[in-house]
Amino acid sequence: MSINSVVKTATNQSIETSELLLVKQQLKKVLREHGQAILKLKESEEKFKTIADYTYNWEYWLSPESKLLYNSPSCEGLTGYKPEDFLTNPELFLSIVHPDDKAKFAEHRECRCYTSNSTNHIQFRIITKNGLLRWVAHSCQPVYNSEGEFFGRRASNRNITAQKHTEEQVNKSEERFRLALDATSDGVWDKNLLSNEEYFGENWYLTLGYSTQDVDQHSLTWQNLLHPDDKPKLKAAIDRHITGLSKRYEVEVRVRHKTGKWQWFLSRGKVVERSETGQAIRIVGLNTDITQNKENELELRSIKDTLEDNIVERINEIDDVNVTLKVLLKKMEKDKLSVEQNIANKIEKLIHPYLEKLHQSDLKLEQRIVLDMLTANFKDLTTHFTPEVSSLMNKLTPTEFRVANFVKHGKTTKEMAEVMCLSPGTISIHRKNIRKKLNISQQKINLQAFLCTSL
After folding, report:
1. pLDDT grade, residue 287 (50/70/90)?
2. Please, which residues have CB within 8 angstroms of residue 391's CB and are 6 or more apart in sequence?
């Protein structure tokens, strides 16, 4: 071998040794980095497992082949079974699902949507190891690695038994409330304004003469039985209340009875649930049959109109009677004046001449007093008392009236006592009684002057 060949061979071996050392160094670096990565991965897995193990809800992870890869210890608190029980028995989960919910859960588990990015939810019942029934809210979603490869699905199960019991109690309470309202009204209704779901008590169609069969066969609803003219009015009232312009809505509408006649109802309602933004969510109302009230109202209106007509007619008749009475009163007044004048003329012609002759004759004092009184009284017949004095004079007794007549014509107490055969003291008592009855007992008024002025 030549020197050049030896040198070349030695040089090549040296180069190979250097490359080998470089490769070894790089391999060590890769192994070191890989070890660090594995360590970090173990630390990350430990953290994940710690977090998952201490979650309140029951968490688990299924492989793409639906094999259980992880099951959190929380499953025992919900089901009574330990995590390893589900690992050793893959069918345990399905076996504890309530028989009535098995089909629903199996359909959910076989759903192909697991490979999508959406989260799927379902609620079902399970029977725990101790035989207790519990409600579970199940949510699951697909899991992908950083390269987008499908790694199975992750699921979370939450115990909602208390919530379901509360919902059940609320539903029972609402049902009792609806039944109570329906029993005390002619139709209770409840509407969800978001889903447009409606509930109507049975009284609304029973009141209208329909049966359950009529409602089912003809798809009868409250709305399609409303009078066409009342639909806009009802909608406007409800819209006004929903938008917060009124505390409640209340409107009278007509609804078609099975016989074809229109039946009146008072429809009332109120929003009982609103969202945080104030949007109306639920409204509850009552319908009350007011047909009889409307008929009574129409009857009362008819009676009122008839009464008003009768009153107007009676007023006209009374006016006619008043006119007639006024004519008659005028005629009576005229006749009265004529009669009085006639009496006065006859007294003047037939009686006064004889009284004058008696005055000229020789009479005793007592006779002359009586004659003077007789003459004065005939004169009074031709004059009139004022209404006020006539009313007062009617209160006097016959004896008091005679005394008042004597006083008026200026007779003394002694003269009155002799003519009336009474004592002067008795005449004085009569004079006091007369003043009292004429309302002048406490006044300084001359009795004769008062009688002469008033009569």
Report:
1. confident
2. none
